[in-house]
């Protein structure tokens, strides 16, 4: 099943702020998660975001860029609600 992707307004604004190379990279990765939004692949680290959100949120890591999205299986679509650049170089302090 191919999931259509819906970019929320906030995610579209962040995508427009990025340089052309990063924006194209994100669009290429979004095209790939249409096929299987749950399975990590080389160059695409997908993690479930902790919390009690229904449906659960997922985070796609592309270098320092992060994309957070929901997979609404009932409607058969992916909703991208946040695109951001990670600020720290490491999660370890």
Number of helical elements: 2
- Mean pLDDT metric: 89
Poorly predicted residue ranges:
none
Number of strands: 5
Number of structural units classed as domains: 1
Global geometry = globular
- Please identify, by name, the CATH architecture: 2-Layer Sandwich
CATH superfamily: RelE-like
> Beta fraction of the residues?
25-35%
And the CATH topology?
Answer: YaeB-like fold
SSE order, one letter for each helix or strand: EHHEEEE
Structural class: alpha+beta
- Strand order within the widest sheet? 1-5-4-3-2
Largest sheet: 5 strands, mixed
Residues in helices, as a percent range: 10-25%
Radius of gyration: 13 Å
Q: What separation lies between the terminal Cα atoms?
A: 41 Å
Query: What is the CATH class?
Result: Alpha Beta
């Amino acid at each position: 099943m191919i999931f259509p992707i819906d970019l929320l307004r906030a995610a579209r604004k962040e995508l427009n702020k990025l340089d052309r190379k990063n924006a194209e990279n994100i669009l290429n990765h979004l095209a790939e998660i249409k096929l299987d939004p749950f399975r990590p692949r080389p160059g695409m680290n997908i993690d479930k975001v902790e919390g009690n959100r229904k449906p659960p949120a997922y985070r796609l890591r592309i270098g320092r860029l992060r994309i957070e999205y929901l997979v609404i299986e009932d409607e058969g679509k992916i909703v991208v609600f946040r695109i951001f650049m990670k600020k720290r170089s490491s999660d370890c302090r």
